[in-house]
Structures are given as structure tokens and as C-alpha cells.
Amino acid sequence: MLSIPGSPRRQCDGSRRQFLKIGGLALGGLSLPQILQAEAQVATPARPLGHKAIIMIFLSGGPSHQDMYDLKMDAPSEIRGEFRPIDTNVPGIQICNHMPRLATMMDKFAIIRSLHGCPDQHASDLCMSGWPINGDGRQSGHPSLGAVLSKVQGPVDKAVPPFVGLSIPSRHEPYGNPGFPGFLGKPHAPMQPTGEGMDNMRLQGISLDRLRDRKALLSGFDAFRNSADNAYEGLDAYSQRAFDVLTSSKLVEAMDLEKEDPTLRDRYGRGDNSPAFGEDAGPHWLDQFLMARRLVEAGVRCVTLSFGSWDRHHSNFARLPLQLNKFDQGITALVEDLHHRGLQDDVSVIAWGEFGRTPRINDNAGRDHWPQASCALLAGGGMRMGQVIGSTNRLGEVPQDRPLHYQNVFATLYRQLGIDPMTTTVPDFAGRPQYMLDIREPIDELI
């Protein structure tokens, strides 16, 4: 029995959805990844993507710019903190001593030190779309970058969703926003495999003996698809996407990390979906960096994920060393892997948070919210790497040279993804054309 729910469950503005359930092909609760793993498979060799993609990493809670990429060693002790700068492989660029791998690969990254435009909001909205929460709702009612890619460019393969959100749910819901579709509507919301979508990708009641032949299972899906052609054509866009995804093994195989060499998995690191430090934020789930790379290779255009707990009102210098080390491992493994696979021009990577932290250290050895300045780390996408763009003043309080808005960064990313931010529009609920951004000028230094 195949059921296609007509009413998706809602989270905030409705990005969590229930996908197809295949109830009559019972399997005692085994998931498709477990089925496909039963027969050993040779890993697919690397090859050019043939499409542009982006991996967006949200550092939930607001990372401390002056403890990562913008250390102020000439400032008073209550400003500069306990960390020390180290040289990188790009002369003149220094970063925090707790990111040594990044220091050896700085020529493959770019840092923006002069970001502004962030309100005092604990939410991923700004980092997913370029728009904060305001009177028009989440993301100011606008679509996320992933939703725009879904609408404007569509799927690369109809069996693979163009937009996947890996962010875990959180008690503070705005942290778990993987990128809402806004006025583009639910057909362009991200598929969330860590939510109920993957839970429903289970076959119930068939013994393992009936599934020894993987080819027979897949050909059965093909036969089912062919027999349902007429019904398929009558489905709405949302249900058609769900149908395509769940009658193909391509997405499930992309998410099966057991297909990777264990040595590569160790380079990325492991982890789980537990919130970092037991706090209400992202996890230290390094597997997601590798999964993101596998998903874009399978045809996904945008993958979003959240990482770590950066809201360090206390214990900043006690907890950041562990977290910076894990972030250092995951982000460098991802970018190194993209280069090894020849994908550095096809896949853009960005890691940032919703705002920066106060220059002055508080009485609890922490830093508080500081919307006046923030930072970003970029890689790939055919952008110019090995540079720092912009600066803050002596105490890290405000942008000084080359102030850049979050939307300038989005304009750059859209351009590298093949969408002209100056001319491209998308229709709102009333069918009126809307620009994706108010600030549409890309960053010249990156392109």
C-alpha cells in the first residue's frame, strides 16, 4: 500500500514534511540504507558534477570573530582573550591557534572580517536567505537560497531533491531552520532526511530472504513506477517530488556513508546528532560534512547543516578549543576532499553564524551578543581564495575597511551558482516578480 499524505506537518512556516510511506513491501523495520548495504558495492569514482552546488554551514549561536579569524593582540587583555594567532600558508594572514589544519590550507579559503547587517536574533534565517526575521515572518517572508535554486534551476535528477537540509531539530526552533521556502511555497522546501522523511523510508513486513537480490528490488520499483504513470502525472508538484525520491535508490545510496573508505571517514571525523555540550544548538556531527559532499555529487544543488554551540556567554575559552578543533577538522576535510575530486570550481562552501560576539570579555569568561560585526569563511565555487577581505577597528567593534552586508555575500554565491542576482526574479504568492535580495552587488574580490 502506497500512501501520499496530502497535509504536511508544520514546523514554523512548514518546512518539515512527511514523505511517501511504502507500507505493503514489509521489511520488519529495516531501512533502505540497511537493505542496500547488504550487498557490497564499489564506491562510485569521482567525476565532474556537471552542475553548480553549495554547502551552507550554520554556526548556531553566533561565533566569536575575534577568537577565530580576527584576533586583536594589540588590544587590552579584557578584549584580546586567551588565544594566540598562528601564521598560515598565505603570507600575512593569521588565524586562531586552535585551527592548525585551516592554517596549512589558507590558500584554499577566503575570510571576510567586515560583515554587518545582522540583528540580535538567535536564528539561522539570515544565514540561509540573507533575510532576518521581521514583521513579515521568518526570513522576512523571503525564500532561502536553496529554495531559490529549487525554483529557478530545478532538480538535476528528478530522483534527487535539489535542496536537502541536514540541520537537526532544536528546542529553540529558529536554530533548526534548514532554509524555509518563503513565498515560493512547500514544493521548494528542503527535504530533511534527519526528520520524519527518512523514518518513513522503511519497508514493513518482508523477510530478508526476499530481498537478497538487490536488482530485483530496484526493478520492482521501476515496474511500480511504470504502472503508476497515469496517477503520477496527476499528482501535485510536492507529491511528485516525493514519489520520485522514494522510488529511486539514488538518494539513499548517497546518504550511506558506509560506502566510503574508512580512512576518509576518519579524516572527516565522526560524531552524532547530540547537541554540542548538551546545549540547545547544533551538534558536533562531523559525518554531515561528508554526507553533504556525497549529496551534491548525487545531484543536490544545496545542502544546509548546523554545527556546534557558539553562544558562549560563559566558558568561552574553556569550550571553544574543543569546538574549534572539531570545526577545523570537518571544514578542512571537506574542502580538501572537494579539491582531490576536482570539484573546487563546482561546489561553493560557506560557514558563518548569525552575529559576532562582544569585544569585551564578561565576568563569566564569555562574550555576549554583538550584531555590529561578524565574519564568514568561504571556499570553492570558482571564487578567489587565499585572501582576507575587510577589517574591523582596533578592538573588533565595527567594520572599518570594506564593510560588507550578508546580502553582498549571497549576491556573490548566487552569481557563482549561475543565477544573476541583478536581474533574476522569482514570483511571490501573488505572482509578482521579486528580486532575491535588496543588496545585489557581488563582492568583486571573490569573483
UniProtKB/TrEMBL annotation:
Protein's name according to its UniProt entry: DUF1501 domain-containing protein
Pfam families reported in the protein's UniProt record: DUF1501
Listed SUPFAM superfamilies: Alkaline phosphatase-like (SSF53649)
